[in-house]
Amino acid sequence: MNLASLPTPSLVLDKQVLERNIRRMADILAARGVPLRPHMKTAKSIEVAHLALQGQPGGITVSTLAEAAYFARHGIGDILYAVAITPEKLDAVARLNAAGARVMVITDDADTASAIAAHPSPPRVLIEIDSGEARSGVDPRGDELLAIAERLGPQVAGVMTHAGHSYGARSEAALAAVAETERRAVVSAAERLRAAGHATPIVSMGSSPTAVHGGDFTGVTEVRAGVYMFGDLFQAEIGTHGMDDIAMTVLTSVIGRRPGRLIVDAGGLALSKDRSTEAAPRDYGFGLVLDLAGRPAFGDAIVRRAYQEHGVVELDPAHPLDLPVGAKLRIAPNHTCMTAAAHDRYHVTEGGEEVVAVWDRVNGW
Amino acid sequence: MNLASLPTPSLVLDKQVLERNIRRMADILAARGVPLRPHMKTAKSIEVAHLALQGQPGGITVSTLAEAAYFARHGIGDILYAVAITPEKLDAVARLNAAGARVMVITDDADTASAIAAHPSPPRVLIEIDSGEARSGVDPRGDELLAIAERLGPQVAGVMTHAGHSYGARSEAALAAVAETERRAVVSAAERLRAAGHATPIVSMGSSPTAVHGGDFTGVTEVRAGVYMFGDLFQAEIGTHGMDDIAMTVLTSVIGRRPGRLIVDAGGLALSKDRSTEAAPRDYGFGLVLDLAGRPAFGDAIVRRAYQEHGVVELDPAHPLDLPVGAKLRIAPNHTCMTAAAHDRYHVTEGGEEVVAVWDRVNGW
Q: What is the pLDDT of residues A301-317, one digit of tens each?
């Protein structure tokens, strides 16, 4: 099947770019001597997980219990569920582990730590550290870290942090600084736990930007990153990768044409309403329009308005486009995790327009 | 089952509020003497469609071919697919119609009109009119209207318009003015077509705000509206309904707590990244936090940051909240169409916390 004959909107995944992105991240981290626990929250696909795990220890990160169940069912047992657990969700984790998986959870809450310790089949736990994002996690220097470990007892498997504020950094130097802050936070927390008698084998940090820009991973046992596999306009803007490294795009059809603009059948649902690039050097609206081959052939042809099913593309005056209704285009996303989540499958290409495979995704919770 | 024992995040639909919203819209339009062709793009549910069709002629509006196929399969034949058709999609429409449905399509493009007329099984067509939104549609006064009708010949079933710019109006008077402009555009287009010899039985307009605020529907044969069924914070802000009329909410769990804020497991995927209320009188961030019973009990407790799976709730200093991890809350959405689309089912309540039914949704394309 050719992309030109696919229904629209559809997700397209260029396997060549995907594999190049995966290889580049693996090379970067291998040079730094730290393995990868790929975060599957972006791809949510077993085929992508197999590619991302090549040369890695074999563990993955997930963001939902639905992902954990899906990947466990497909044979991946070493899973870090990296969104803070609630006591109510422990039974679901225990069921996966009873069936053979080894799902670890995270917490930054002392009462939850007690609930975990009291559970008949408690999972292993990473204590979440705040390395500056101010979203979740305990202060690596505070008393709470030790109090939580005390309550968890033998369930403590390590510490983890996510420097999500790396997304606010706008230079390589700033990103490297965030990465170093992230490393120090999580490594110092691990050292404090060890001094208190907790083995703390796992010291986990990561985000795609700090994985790429971190210079030193001393004391870190694994890096988590996910969006690097597919890339997007925002990551290109902050320098995680180049504009040629966006592996996932949305195939769309022209459904209307007006002076200076096109209407396409990829709107807020097919693209998401994410506006990450609003604060980036270049604002790509809801996405950048590419040709059917995935090339940025139309200058700044940008989806400036997104209704539920309609996208309004403002054309670049330097690249007037006279396309008929039904013409196919592709759109590079602002934020690939959000865009992918509206779709239940990938149409996989290998650089060209031929669809060589269809890979499913595990959406929802 | 009780809401308190549901996995989170989940969609909750209060059937009492839903039925009240449906009844109110039906009463408003009955008083104006115009029937409703409910737009199912918000609910995407057969059970909701049956409720919305009570006392109405029986036709619905949809925004995707997946919806058309789903509703046809569930016995609703009279379907308006209200996103501009492409020639490539005509075969899918023809298959549905060959199986017994009566799917109508819309176009504003002369070449597409020719493709429709040349199709072996052409559907009936409404010509899309631009009533001021400047998204799609032909000028009701221009030559293109007649040219398209000429090409469609006997397939012309009428005209339709969508005054999406009603969402920019901020007073009842402004909304009423948009509704009257919408009416005049589509009625005048119908009159021109009739004068040119096209029967033009259907004159279709609508959006929830103009349906509620339109004073006169003379010449209009049907009104399309969808979001009124569920309501949302944005519609409440522009006066389509009250704050008590939001039928659909997201059930979430507290997964972290910090001074002045809570972290919940409803983030950008469960809520959508829609920021409709950014331009409204009150900015609700990514949603307003309610108690488990769905009451606005916490003042301005608002989801101010939305990561993929994390929502960060800034608490109202006048309503300090000390909730444990695992506590359940509900979140009223900015834009119900976008929020619902991340979920595959509704957990239906009748005002209380008991789940009386589970209704599915047809997502995707």
A: 999 999 999 999 999 99
What's the pLDDT tens digit per position in B100-112?
A: 999 999 999 999 9
**Domains of chain B, with CATH numbers?**
3-11+240-360 (2.40.37.20), 16-230 (3.20.20.10)
Helix (H), strand (E) at residue A39: none
pLDDT at A171: 86
Question: Among B136, B273, B343, whose Cβ lies nearest the Cβ of A256?
Answer: B136
Q: What is the pLDDT of residue A167?
A: 78
- The closest alpha carbon to B183, from B155, B239, B222, B227, belongs to B222
**C-beta atoms of B256 and A108 within 8 A:** yes
B286 CB-near residues (< 8 Å, 6+ apart) = B268, B271, B272, B273, B274, B275, B302, B303, B304, B305, B306, B311, B334
Mean pLDDT over A235-261 rounds to: 95
pLDDT at residue B206, as a whole number: 92
B84 to A256: CB separation less than 8 angstroms, yes or no: yes
- Read off the pLDDT of each residue in A268-294 and give the average, rounded to a whole number: 96
Task: Find, in chain B, the residue whose alpha carbon is nearest to that of A265.
Answer: B83
Report the C-alpha gap between A64 and A70 in whole angstroms: 10
Which of B234, B329, B338, B339 to mutate: most A Cβ within 10 Å? B338
Instruction: Provide the token pair at B38.
Output: 């409910």
Question: Hey, are the CB atoms on B275 and A273 less than 8 Å from each other?
Answer: yes
What gap in Å lies between CA B261 and CA B109, rounded to an integer? 51
8 A C-beta contact, residue A326 and residue A6? no
Q: Is A91 exposed, middle or buried (0-12, 13-18, 19+ CB in 10 A)?
A: exposed
Mean pLDDT across the stretch A136-159? 97
Q: To the nearest whole angstrom, how far is the Cα of A33 from the nearest Cα of chain B?
A: 29
Verify whether the Cβ–Cβ distance A272 to B275 is below 8 Å: no
A265 has a pLDDT exceeding 80: yes
Phi first, then psi: give them for residue B146, nearest 5 degrees: -70, -35
Indicate the pLDDT class of residue B133, thresholds 50, 70 and 90. confident
What would the mean pLDDT of B141-158 be, rounded to a whole number? 98
Nearest alpha-carbon partner for A278 in B273, B247, B215: B273
User: Which of B87, B257, B269 comes nearest A341 by C-beta?
Assistant: B269
Question: Looking at chain B from residue 9 to 48, which residues have their Cβ under 8 Å from any Cβ of chain A?
Answer: 9-10, 41
CA dist list (Å): A337 to A122, A185, A248, B22, B139: 30, 26, 10, 35, 39
Q: How far is CA A54 from CA A48, A50, A57, A359, B253, in A?
A: 10, 7, 8, 18, 36
* Max CA distance (Å), chain B: 70
Per-residue confidence (pLDDT) for residue B171, from 0 to 100: 86
Q: Using a CB-CB distance cutoff of 8 angstroms, which residues of chain B are in contact with residue A134?
A: 258
Chain A residues whose beta carbon lies within 8 Å of the beta carbon of residue B89: 7
Q: What number is the ipTM of this complex?
A: 0.97
- With tokens 């639905």, the residue in question is A66
pLDDT tens-digit profile of B344-356?
999 999 999 999 9
Q: Report which residue type is found at B216.
A: D
Q: Is the pLDDT of residue B149 over 90?
A: yes
Token pair recorded at residue B108? 């504003």
Note the pLDDT of residue B233.
97
Tokens of B167: 């969402």
| Token output for A310 | 């309609």
Q: How far is B87 from chain A (nearest CA, A)?
A: 6
Please provide the average confidence, as pLDDT, over all residues in chain B: 96
In the predicted model, is pLDDT for residue A163 greater than 90? no
